[in-house]
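Design job #97: recover the sequence.
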């Protein structure tokens, strides 16, 4: 295994398009790092630069203790699993798994042992004599994973490997890849894995840490829970989480007692004491107020804020309730709803202000996070 360091990596194409900007990321030995972001954010380009399939315009790429900017892909100690499997259709599974080792002229007994080990770990032993055309997409992806494993690389690279599978197979395969990472670690063979996806569910359930990207830049690198509960900026707050975080444009005000509140239209909602000191300098300035759907409550009593239900999505154990709050469109998540809610009905709602986020209107930075 090896750590991967990207230091001020840039990718500029001949037409002048700056795809990746000053990208700095340290991936630890044995870590499962996920690169996630919307389509076109250059996450695959970044992965391909690690693999050596794209040139690096400037900056330094280190894999282990080796500078790899100009190293050939075969000399980087990496193995890549692609979206489209890239299996040889005329070869059996056994031949596909062995091919890379044969081209490196490994001894036959080593090839056989590694092929059998990978097949057993991925539960494809009974498929060894089949060809890709005789297997399902999930089985083909396991073979592609096995082909990477037999090489015993220092770093595994995954480029949206599950996007061609149906929803059920995606769940199964992401669990299998996560278990493989844990199994290799338990066997004393920890593997460094870098995984690209646009699917935030894959990112949140698989990654030790997640690198959220937008327009070729890093927005935040953190654990899944920290990204959800402590987004560094508005982009991360809106990208991570489903349904999205509710965002309302407003302003901070201060009363005669020095207490701060968020002004949303004609409503003034007091901020918790824990946020007061850090936001004094933003009084009178426009801000964006964020609250996740599970932190909005629909009340039975008439003691809250007026809102109108515009739509209800019943999901069985939970419901997503769309609200019109004085011109703001909000989504509330209700768990185990006991009574049905009707469209166009008037209700009282409340905000869990201890869970709110305040974003600078201009920079998008989360200014409500505690400072060290």
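Job complete. Output follows.
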């Amino acid at each position: 295994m090896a750590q991967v360091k990207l230091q001020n990596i840039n990718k500029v194409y001949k037409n002048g398009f700056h795809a990746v900007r000053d990208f700095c990321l340290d991936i630890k030995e044995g870590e499962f790092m996920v690169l996630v972001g919307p389509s076109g954010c250059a996450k695959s380009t970044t992965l391909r630069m690690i693999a050596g399939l794209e040139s690096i315009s400037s900056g330094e790429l280190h894999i282990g203790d080796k500078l790899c900017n100009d190293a050939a892909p075969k000399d980087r100690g990496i193995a890549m699993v692609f979206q489209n499997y890239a299996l040889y259709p005329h070869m059996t599974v056994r031949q596909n798994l062995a091919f890379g080792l044969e081209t490196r002229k490994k001894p036959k007994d080593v090839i056989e042992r590694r092929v059998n080990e990978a097949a057993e770990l991925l539960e494809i032993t009974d498929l060894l004599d089949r060809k890709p055309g005789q297997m399902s997409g999930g089985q083909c992806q396991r073979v592609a994973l096995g082909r990477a494993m037999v090489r015993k690389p220092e770093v595994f690279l995954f480029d949206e490997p599950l996007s061609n599978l149906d929803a059920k197979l995606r769940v199964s395969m992401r669990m299998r890849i996560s278990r493989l990472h844990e199994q290799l670690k338990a066997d004393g063979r920890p593997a460094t894995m870098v995984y690209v996806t646009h699917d935030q569910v894959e990112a949140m359930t698989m990654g030790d840490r997640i690198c959220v990207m937008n327009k070729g830049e890093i927005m935040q690198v953190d654990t899944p829970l920290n990204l959800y509960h402590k987004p560094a900026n508005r982009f991360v707050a809106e990208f991570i989480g489903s349904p999205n975080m509710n965002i309302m444009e407003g302003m901070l005000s201060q009363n005669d007692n020095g207490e701060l509140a968020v002004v949303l239209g004609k409503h003034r909602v007091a901020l918790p004491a824990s946020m007061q000191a850090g936001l004094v300098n933003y009084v009178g300035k426009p801000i964006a107020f964020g609250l996740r759907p599970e932190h909005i409550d629909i009340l039975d009593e008439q003691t809250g804020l007026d809102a109108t239900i515009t739509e209800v999505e019943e999901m069985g154990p939970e419901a997503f309730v769309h609200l019109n709050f004085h011109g703001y469109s909000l989504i509330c998540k209700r768990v185990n709803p006991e009574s049905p809610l009707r469209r166009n009905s008037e209700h009282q709602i409340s905000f869990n202000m201890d869970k709110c986020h305040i974003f600078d209107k201009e920079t998008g930075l989360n200014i409500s996070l505690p400072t060290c």
